[in-house]
């Protein structure tokens, strides 16, 4: 591990200035569960770390302008244990409980989970100059690709590792970021960048910007949601495939549906065709197997991950069956 400078800024403005001053050599750190692993493995060699852990602006759960604001520094354990989130946004609590281990959830943060780097073996090995590290090749395309993308792959077949991202998108979340130009807010779905658009990062943050919070609209009483995740081991593992599903009903008619897939694409993947196939229909008229198949329409599995197609479709079917009591 190379030596580095560690700074604890006293404000968001100071943190943004430090990060913008040397964007290639300065990295933000909060819980550090992902970044420090990269540093130890020789993937990242920062000259300076700027701690966000002490910034009060990034903490807590509170009401703000008709929304529920989740600070980016909120630990996953704090998220799981918050009574307001348990009551109003159970899908978020479900997703958070699937992440890693209790020890990791105790220090890992919401913002860090959204900004994770790829878990691909080739990216995580310091000797492979893969596309996501500035190279020209995605070694996973023809190599060990059991855990990689079946949807949206191309320049890179990485899968986005965040469990919170699909759940938050299904809850219509917005993301707030702060940088040298001040605050900006965007739909969370627009925060994630494809490898073609951003080869060296998985988001659209500019130089010096950091995630400050996630904003959640007040849920409708007629909205139900669920998060399901398939993995090799119940404890610790990342998703082989996951689905965050949310439906809003008017009587027995579905008037809105969000079906977001995780573990199968370089960004959280919205299953548009599956959503469109159920909106406007009554529960009794649904063909959930057809909807599940539409969720993975266009999948292009690699040599070792064809199993993900049926696995993902089955998760979608199970999620909708549970939500609609079918």
Short description:
With 326 residues, this protein is α+β, with helices and mostly antiparallel strands. It is 28% helix and 21% strand.
Overview of the structural elements:
This protein is α+β, with helices and mostly antiparallel strands and 326 residues long. It has a domain at 223-324: Enolase-like, domain 1, CATH 3.30.390.50. Helices cover 28% and strands 21% of the residues. The protein contains twelve helices and twelve strands. It has helices at residues 12-21, 35-40, 76-81, 83-88, 90-97, 102-107, 110-114, 121-124, 164-170, 272-278, 288-295, 307-324, and strands spanning 5-7, 26-29, 48-51, 61-64, 67-71, 174-179, 182-187, 210-217, 223-230, 241-250, 253-262, 269-270. The strands form three sheets. It has a five-stranded antiparallel β-sheet with strand order 4-5-8-6-7. A four-stranded antiparallel β-sheet has the order 9-10-11-12, sandwiched between helices. Strands 1-3-2 form a three-stranded parallel β-sheet, with helices on one face. Strand 10 (241-250) and strand 11 (253-262) form a beta hairpin. Helix 10 (272-278) packs antiparallel against helix 11 (288-295) and helix 11 (288-295) packs across helix 12 (307-324). The radius of gyration is 20 Å and the shape is globular. It starts with a strand and ends with a helix.
């Amino acid at each position: 591990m190379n030596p580095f400078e560690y700074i604890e800024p006293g404000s968001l403005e100071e943190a943004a200035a430090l990060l913008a001053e040397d964007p290639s050599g300065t990295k933000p750190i909060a819980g550090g569960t992902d970044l420090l692993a990269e540093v130890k493995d020789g993937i990242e060699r920062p000259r300076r770390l700027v701690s966000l852990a002490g910034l009060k602006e990034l903490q807590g759960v509170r009401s703000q302008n008709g929304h529920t604001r989740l600070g980016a520094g909120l630990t996953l354990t704090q998220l799981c244990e918050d009574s307001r989130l348990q009551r109003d946004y159970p899908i978020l609590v479900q997703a958070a409980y699937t992440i890693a281990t209790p020890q990791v959830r105790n220090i890992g943060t919401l913002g860090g989970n959204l900004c994770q780097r790829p878990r691909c073996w080739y990216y995580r090995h310091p000797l492979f100059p893969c596309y996501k590290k500035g190279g020209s090749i995605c070694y996973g395309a023809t190599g060990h690709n059991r855990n990689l993308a079946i949807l949206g792959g191309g320049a890179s077949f990485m899968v986005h590792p965040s469990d919170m991202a699909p759940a938050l998108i299904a809850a219509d979340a917005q993301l707030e970021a702060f940088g040298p130009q001040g605050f900006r807010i965007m739909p969370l779905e627009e925060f994630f960048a494809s490898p073609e658009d951003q080869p060296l990062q998985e988001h659209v943050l500019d130089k010096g910007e950091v995630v400050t919070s996630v904003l959640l609209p007040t849920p409708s009483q007629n909205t139900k949601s669920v998060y399901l995740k398939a993995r090799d081991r119940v404890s610790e593992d990342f998703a082989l495939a996951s689905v965050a599903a949310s439906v809003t009903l008017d009587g027995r008619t579905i008037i809105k549906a969000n079906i977001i897939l995780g573990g199968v694409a370089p960004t959280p993947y919205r299953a548009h065709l599956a959503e469109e196939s159920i909106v406007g229909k009554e529960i009794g008229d649904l063909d959930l197997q057809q909807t599940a198949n539409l969720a993975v329409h266009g999948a292009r599995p690699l040599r070792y991950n064809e199993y993900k197609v049926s696995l993902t479709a089955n998760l979608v079917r199970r999620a909708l069956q549970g939500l609609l009591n079918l």
